[in-house]
Amino acid sequence: MSNAHVMLGLLSRGQQHGYDLKRAHDEQFPAARPLAYGQVYATLQRLEKQGLVEPVTVERVDGPDRTVYALTDAGRTELADWLDSPEPPSPYVSNPLAVKVTLTILAAGEQEAHTYLRRQRAAHLDRMRDYTRTKTEPSSSLPQVLAADYALAHLDADLRWIDTALQRVGALTKEITS
Amino acid sequence: MSTASGEKAVALSARSLVYSYGAAPAVKGVSLEVARGEILSITGASGSGKSTLLLCLAGVLAPDAGEVRLGDRIISAESESERSRLRRSQVGVVFQFGQLVPELTALENVALPLLLGGARRSAAETAARTWLERFEVGGLADARPPGMSGGQSQRVAIARAMVTEPEVVLADEPTGALDSLSGELVMNQLVRVVREAGTTVVLVTHDARVSAYGDREIHLRDGELDPHPADLLDAGVS
Ligand SMILES: Nc1ncnc2c1ncn2[C@@H]1O[C@H](COP(=O)(O)OP(=O)(O)OP(=O)(O)O)[C@@H](O)[C@H]1O
Ligand SMILES: [Mg+2]
């Protein structure tokens, strides 16, 4: 996923200038890093060169001139193609927690690995409590709730792994120290 | 909520609880304290003794050893009939498995604890209706449990646990049978209502996402409490 595609998506609601796009982005995607205006401007220029967006008018309100952009037909096709194709499911193969468990067993022993996992579990659960609070806050917007849900689901996946690992520390210790 | 000394008032506590169904104890010396207004989660693997512990806290089971205190009363020392009276008036319980009376409507189910406590029918039904509405199942007042979805009957069961406005609610896997969105809606409502009422809650679950609604978690393993990780000696690599 690229910011360029996100810009195309946001422009599908109608022509907008860069500042509006930045604001819409930050509001719709509260979990994403807020866009810098310079980044938006550079992306729009690149998209214009590719023929995916075009400037339609320049707004002169108080302050600087603002170029208003719209999707071109090519831009619309590009957006539709992108939206139609599923993102590659991320395999999350690198697991820093597993690395730490193995190294703790090697450096300190089984009991310490167990203790490490218990602490990690507590730390994960603390984060889950924070996100749960965000979710239940009546003032949270639906995008914020969904972002918290996403974080919670991933933390929960880690936590399930931690629970399984806790039951297997003994067996793992035997295997890697034999 | 604090006492004059600034300490948190303890709503419910257990000391060295032991309970056995047969030869091997299912709960082996558990001690805990729940502060007033606190939501405490109890997690642990299947068979670790969560439900047994909760039933002891609720006064449904009488422990073989140790005591359960509700406020300043030692309920584990009370007679069976006194425990069940206390349970009706001061403790709300949501059980893990089938608990609504299938022959009664949702309204009658929720009104039941008040009627058993001696309330007049009209007053009991008015209160029951209010609690059904609070959990957004007011429309089901005349429905009977066999015709309800899992989430609906769970909401009715929670309304029934809260209708006496108990100091303490004990809930065993309140969302166990629900998909994650329905479970979340039930939890959101439960937490909103108990926070408003200042109710103390003990929440048994094997699901970390449910546990995260609590203020604090304790973990059971083979009938014993795991020490909190913060209390474990710093045994890491130094
Ligand atoms: N009515 C019973 N008679 C005999 N043994 C029981 C009874 N209920 C529970 N046990 C045993 O006591 C132990 C603890 O069971 P308990 O139901 O408290 O576990 P739990 O943590 O609630 O499990 P789950 O997550 O599956 O609900 C288990 O070994 C179980 O087999
Ligand atoms: Mg159980």
Automatic annotation (TrEMBL), chain A:
InterPro entries: Tscrpt_reg_PadR_C, Tscrpt_reg_PadR_N, WH-like_DNA-bd_sf, WH_DNA-bd_sf. Residues 107-168 form the Transcription regulator PadR C-terminal domain. Gene3D superfamilies: Winged helix-like DNA-binding domain superfamily/Winged helix DNA-binding domain. Residues 7-80 form the Transcription regulator PadR N-terminal domain. Pfam families: PadR, Vir_act_alpha_C. This is PadR family transcriptional regulator. It comes from Luteipulveratus flavus.
From TrEMBL, chain B:
InterPro entries: AAA+_ATPase, ABC_transporter-like_ATP-bd, ABC_transporter-like_CS, ABC_transpr_LolD-like, MacB-like_ATP-bd, P-loop_NTPase. Pfam families: ABC_tran. Residues 12-237 form the ABC transporter domain. Keywords: ATP-binding, Nucleotide-binding, Transport. SMART domains: AAA. GO terms for molecular function: ATP binding. It comes from the Bacteria. PANTHER family: ABC TRANSPORTER RELATED, IMPORT ATP-BINDING PROTEIN. This is ABC transporter ATP-binding protein. It comes from Luteipulveratus flavus. The lineage of its organism: Bacteria, Bacillati, Actinomycetota, Actinomycetes, Micrococcales.
